[in-house]
Amino acid sequence: MAQSAVQNQRVYVQKEATYGTIPNSTGAATVANADAVLFESLNLGLSNSLIVRPDKTPGFGEVSGVAGHRGASFTLSGTLCPSGAAGTKPDWDEIYEAAFGAAATVVASTSVTYNIGSGSPSLSIWEIWEALERVGFGGVVDQIKFSLGDGFARVEVSGPMRWVLDKAGFASHDTTGKGGLTAWPTAPTTPTFNGTGLTTFQGSATLDGNAYTTVRSAEITIQMARTLPADVIFAGAYPGLPSRGRRKVTVSVGMTDDDTANLLAIKNKANISKVTAPMIFVCGSTAGNIATFNLPRVILDPAGYVESGANLGINFSGQAFPSTALLSDEMTLAFT
Amino acid sequence: MIFRFIGTECQIGDFPPLQSFGAAIDLPETLAREIIAPASNPERGSALLPDATFQAVGFTADELAAHRWVSSHADAPAEFQKKKAAALAALTETRKRIASGGPTVPEKSKKGGE
After folding, report:
1. What burial letters (b/e) apply to A47-84, b meaning 16+ CB within 10 Å?
2. Angle at B98 between CA B93 and CA B102, to 5 degrees
3. How does residue B114 score in pLDDT terms, banded at 50, 70 and 90?
4. Residue B70: its chain A contacts at CB < 8 A?
5. Does B38 touch chain A (CB under 8 A)?
């Protein structure tokens, strides 16, 4: 009997060419060493609830039901990590593409930039343990959150999935549940990881055009409102095609309060005028290992004060808006 | 086959981690092609150059010793920066060549350097 050590978990991520189809070549999965990603935690959740037949019975009991609509969800978190070579996409490229909804713009030897797009690319996420192998597929990113605090910069993505297929039960899944595979693959044996995790020790925060060295934390969240409808009929028990709702990009910043004119200008924008304040956060300082978050139009909520540490702290939170009703330029993430 | 690393950090299975600029690693060519230019996404992958390609860029031993750690590159002399840019451009070309089914090392380099 094999058991799985918690530490010995490998994760491979692939972008699907077709929603709900695990990348394959005539039924054989194409998952490869280079699809591996370093991560902190992965949670693949499965839902297959029982629906009880509603009819009355003379014995006052319930008639045993049938399996209801199926579905799944995922949450994946890890350290923000560029590739380490300028112009090379990071290991998490497929995840960022799925989150932003568009492929990155690559400038050779220079940069990889993610802009918000209109797509809903889907992912297959493989989870390999010693005694458990699973793949969640048809996964779309509903939310991505970047947390910039003391130490490593972190990222977390989550969203719904179509289904989770497991090696042990492979034969028992139906055709849709097999996601296009005809056999379970041998896991890649040489997972490869690129890049150095970013910390917040090097970099900068530029708020409303001025650099600050008093920022203690920042969090940027893109809520893409992607869903997999679980109420379609005559289309099997699995979720339907991805759909997306109204996007929302939010940001929060915690910093030490002071009486400078520049910070007062931000406070006035937050508390009174509601004029946009651009925000730029840069993590890292070594070429190939820098991430820049650019939010050109943030409108802040009224500032909140907090007693944290020796000095009074001030917290701002707000929402980033596109420049026109037709655009989706609330923010960009660039690796340089 | 020998490859040279031009990124910040790379871990390839059980191979020793690559953490310094110019570090050499002996990899099976098939594995190297797979991880330098993954078939599913050739613009992602490990920053490895075939040794002949790396040598052709012309880094001196002194330069590699002085700028072994990528954190020193921002302050490196212009000559080194120029060579590093050439190495990154060579990586792009290597990826394109592998992705199109071409040889890992360009024929010209093989004749001259291997």
Report:
1. beeeeeeeeeeeeeeeeeeeeebbbbbbebbbbbbbbb
2. 100
3. very low
4. 84, 286-289
5. yes
Q: Which of B15, B41, B54, B80 is best to mutate for the A interface (most A CBs within 10 A)?
A: B41
Distances (CA, A) of A311 to A148, A257, A305: 20, 8, 11
Q: How far apart (Å, rounded) are the C-alpha atoms in residues A19 and A21?
A: 6
Q: Which of A31, A38, A83 to mutate to test the interface with B (most CBs of B within 10 A)?
A: A83
Nearest to A307 by CA among A257, A252, A265: A257
Report the alpha-carbon distance of residue A70 to residue A162 in Å, rounded: 8
A92 CB-side CA count, 13 A: 28
ipTM of the complex: 0.92
Task: Give the distance from residue B76's alpha carbon to the nearest chain A alpha carbon, in angstroms.
Answer: 11
Residue for token digits 């969640």? A136
Per-residue pLDDT of A162-189, as tens digits, reads 999 999 999 999 999 999 999 999 999 9
Cβ within 8 Å, pair A285-B45: no
Touching check for B10 and chain A: CB below 8 Å? yes
Consecutive H or E run containing B89: helix B78-99
Are the Cβ atoms of B91 and A30 closer than 8 angstroms?
no
Any A CB within 8 A of B66 CB: no
Pick the closest to residue B38 from A180, A115, A83, A51 (CA basis): A83
* pTM of the entire predicted model: 0.95
Q: Which of A14, A33, A84 sits opposite B7 (nearest CB)?
A: A84
**Which candidate, A82, A78, A100, places its Cα nearest to that of A91?**
A82
